[in-house]
Amino acid sequence: MFLHTVFLLSFLLSTSHATVQDFCVADLKSADGPAGFPCKPAAKVTSDDFVFAGLTETANVTNIINGAVTPAFVGQFPGVNGLGLSAARIDLGPAGVIPLHTHPGANELLLVTQGYILAGFISSSNVVYQKLLKKGELMVFPQGLLHFQIAAHKRKATAFAIFSSANPGLQILDFALFASDFSTPLITQTTFLDPALVKKLKGVLGGSG
Amino acid sequence: MFLHTVFLLSFLLSTSHATVQDFCVADLKSADGPAGFPCKPAAKVTSDDFVFAGLTETANVTNIINGAVTPAFVGQFPGVNGLGLSAARIDLGPAGVIPLHTHPGANELLLVTQGYILAGFISSSNVVYQKLLKKGELMVFPQGLLHFQIAAHKRKATAFAIFSSANPGLQILDFALFASDFSTPLITQTTFLDPALVKKLKGVLGGSG
Amino acid sequence: MFLHTVFLLSFLLSTSHATVQDFCVADLKSADGPAGFPCKPAAKVTSDDFVFAGLTETANVTNIINGAVTPAFVGQFPGVNGLGLSAARIDLGPAGVIPLHTHPGANELLLVTQGYILAGFISSSNVVYQKLLKKGELMVFPQGLLHFQIAAHKRKATAFAIFSSANPGLQILDFALFASDFSTPLITQTTFLDPALVKKLKGVLGGSG
Amino acid sequence: MFLHTVFLLSFLLSTSHATVQDFCVADLKSADGPAGFPCKPAAKVTSDDFVFAGLTETANVTNIINGAVTPAFVGQFPGVNGLGLSAARIDLGPAGVIPLHTHPGANELLLVTQGYILAGFISSSNVVYQKLLKKGELMVFPQGLLHFQIAAHKRKATAFAIFSSANPGLQILDFALFASDFSTPLITQTTFLDPALVKKLKGVLGGSG
Amino acid sequence: MFLHTVFLLSFLLSTSHATVQDFCVADLKSADGPAGFPCKPAAKVTSDDFVFAGLTETANVTNIINGAVTPAFVGQFPGVNGLGLSAARIDLGPAGVIPLHTHPGANELLLVTQGYILAGFISSSNVVYQKLLKKGELMVFPQGLLHFQIAAHKRKATAFAIFSSANPGLQILDFALFASDFSTPLITQTTFLDPALVKKLKGVLGGSG
Amino acid sequence: MFLHTVFLLSFLLSTSHATVQDFCVADLKSADGPAGFPCKPAAKVTSDDFVFAGLTETANVTNIINGAVTPAFVGQFPGVNGLGLSAARIDLGPAGVIPLHTHPGANELLLVTQGYILAGFISSSNVVYQKLLKKGELMVFPQGLLHFQIAAHKRKATAFAIFSSANPGLQILDFALFASDFSTPLITQTTFLDPALVKKLKGVLGGSG
């Protein structure tokens, strides 16, 4: 009986599992495609591929926004490839701010793990949905909408954002406008902002044009 | 033989098509769901449900942007419900501008049908991709990224945008910031814009807070 | 100029946004469908719909597994409807265990927020991938595969699980076998378990048949 | 210990499963939507909802094609709603034919269970892929492409088609052309067929116009 | 402050954007997969990749159908790879016809840009939905259903078709039957068409068998 | 006229079909990705790629379960790549059993082709749905849920399972627990099973740890 079972088992394994997998750990050295990266061969996959330890530490927030975003997207965490999930850690000093931004490719679920965060998003109908969140509270931000997070109550704060894609993207409004080579005349034409202000912010953020 | 055929036909029609359809024209009076609106009963669907005549005319562009966007989303064109497609007409007077905006729920394919349009988008990596388009040219804008269209060569222009969703959404940056009740202190905190400028633009666009 | 702008804005709002939304907060009183629940009308949606405060407290773990799972699926958190995301809080006393289980409808991303957790899953090829996780570490569990979490180092632990569906499901192996009315003869035939053991575990977990 | 366990179990069941399900048996009396029909309440779902007994018998094939297609789409088999699967039984008398047809909404996997079937499809590149199939053999037909099945070797044959949608659709070329009210002038313009032949076939199949 | 900001920016760019993109311009030299082609490296992507200028000119329509279809599918326009959109230009001389055809892999949105077009499709229930369209009007054709376009009012006409896939496919009924090597006996068996007519049309369209 | 037509045809074929296909037969020698394997070049695809003859014979069932599962997943049947369909043949001797198992990546439609099969699944709510099936009857098993099949009425039985994925996966509960290197202490902690029983079953099924 033992041999027969092992025979069945071997048969199932050898034929059905030789080439396909339950998961698809990214082979980041290959070109990605619309659905993600090619899979690392199953034989080379280990437990470590499914674990990411890069979000355990508080990031340095001594910068202009008094905050930092540390991503665990597929580029950093190959195990999420094809699974429709990824994450980022948000660290904020007192009154730290994650400026207005969007994730063009994913919805977001925010979990506050320390302090208080005022978070909000603006809908296509120009309605602002915002809330002061405390530790353990969750807030969702629908895909592609402008949103922000601010540490409240003069305390530092930490949160984890989980995205509905392994590759959510991150477009920070100020960086798109003022840290790019988007020309000042085009910015003023398409935003009604003042040229002097645009130039000043480009100076701070490193934009050209 | 004739009777048998008709019998087969009737059988197929009565059993397989009584309750399901090849399409799902939106019943806009019912609540929508994540995949769209419930379907109008097949018996009430006519050719007109698959046709939209609301984009035939040039829109009035005597406004601040010298331009207009006329949507043919599922709310206007119920026939696209569930089909992953919708459209909008863009009319621009000479030097008219469609200000920076995103479609949070869809990719966009732009087709210029009159004049010249300078169009561009900014990626998550803060790279600007822009091009002067002429009649008959196409440009794609990936989902959720900031983009703009400007009539060029001092001539009026027309284009049609086609979206990869029946409900693409439309978030116009200036309206989100300055035509909403997003508070001025929060705007300045999350964008680094000058409070005086924010207040001025709110005055123009009707925002509060 | 002001009037023209407001006119444009009103036009866009009234025509394109009357019936469609960027989100779809669940109307839990209506029947759900394959893609989720019908949407609550936009006019009744408030900031609170996007926030969930039910995972802020440590759950009572004085039970047989010395652990608890508190869900924030669409049934508890209507704001995640249609967004491909939901969450659960895992509380474990010292040596507490979340027994072998699957989420038939979602991939899972686990974030440890307190203590140490030994977590693992078994693939279709019968390979066990397991790892001792500490605070801030992430582990991903592909959809439908058996997995477990155990508090390690004799300390209590907390984690948050985020799922790639608003309705991930939760099939706990022991409950499926021993807390259901799955008949003992069928269990022994389909698992090779001993009838005496099956009856004993049914006694503990409340199963019949 | 027993009480604690049951408490945990009850908690999980009452909170996480009150409103959501692992499946979505169609409530055919409600309007369907793009993703299928609303779900029957879980409390009313029984084992019978997951079983379909309508394909057990050989269909009457005394008709013009000496064949019959009996569907088990969502309209007949509500249990497949939302599951991306449905089926049909194909019965053929000796030399019976399922005429050229497409399934606009699904790929098809054909399983021959009796006799011999010559089956084939034509690609967008106008290449014909055809094969004589025997009992137990499978053939796959990509979505939306014209295909056919013919009983071979002068014997009756049976097959089961499984589709990648609960609502695959079925467009039979001859019925679309000659059993509809597609006008004869339009048919001849769009197919190059001879008007006399069109009228003759309309006479046989019941078309008008 | 400046340095800190640039540091944050650099960090975000280098870690999160090194390997993933907001878009996936097709690398047509690599093998495609079910979701499309592998992506061209981001560093090699330019504005030109998002623009297609191949539909600006009227195609030559001096042929049997007095019409032409010029595709801008992913094979011609690599920028649409993975975006669920593509296009084609339809040119028709007076009374020109795009014969009955299907797109097996996409829904279609037709925009008339010149003249008058009579367009229609046939459903799985053998109902014909047709309409005379004028400039600026839109019509949708659900995936996989037979449809046609004819220039009306004795004038030439132009339209643009937009598809819900980068690779919609195009199966022209007459070409599938009469320009392929589909054997005449099989055609007559599966369509009821007359062998003499089949042979005649094969002669015109170049089919064999 | 003939030349013009052929010209049109050639044009369409050469431009639109040079690089894209209606199907994507797996090139199993290349690495797969989240959506499946890269496509074999169209020029090398033949009718045989769409046909699978590996399920025509009754499998050897002289083993511990008196049954066998023979897969026709993408690894065996490359033609189903990207089509959302695959199959398996189930052979059972009298009283043969396919033990409790899940398909983590697909829904299943079971078709009995010989004998009687008692089949059932257990939901997330721990409800057992089971039914005695006879020849020609269908039963669906929603994705990721534990299910089983047993030959009934002391007769051998055959069934075909069709899956909603080309790569459904197969996790057999007993093999996951007792044919893997899942350690006995972890098994007993996460299942409440008796260590002695675990060791005995590991001995039979070949597990270690």
TrEMBL record, chains A, B, C, D, E, F:
Cystine residue pairs: C24-C39
Domain Cupin type-1: residue ranges: 53-199
Protease found in the keyword field: no
Keywords: Apoplast, Disulfide bond, Glycoprotein, Manganese, Metal-binding, Receptor, Secreted, Signal
The keyword Transferase belongs to this UniProt entry's keyword annotation: no
GO MF term set: auxin binding; auxin receptor activity; manganese ion binding; receptor tyrosine kinase binding
Cellular location(s): Secreted, Extracellular space, Apoplast
InterPro entries xrefs: Cupin_1, Germin, Germin_Mn-BS, RmlC-like_jellyroll, RmlC_Cupin_sf
Major subcellular location class: secreted
Family matches, as SUPFAM superfamilies: RmlC-like cupins
GO CC terms, sorted: apoplast; extracellular matrix
Chain residues that bind Mn(2+): H101, H103, E108, H147
Binding site for oxalate: H103, E108
Signal peptide as annotated in the record: 1-18
Family designation: Belongs to the germin family.
Name under which the protein is recorded: Germin-like protein
The organism of origin for this protein: Phaseolus angularis
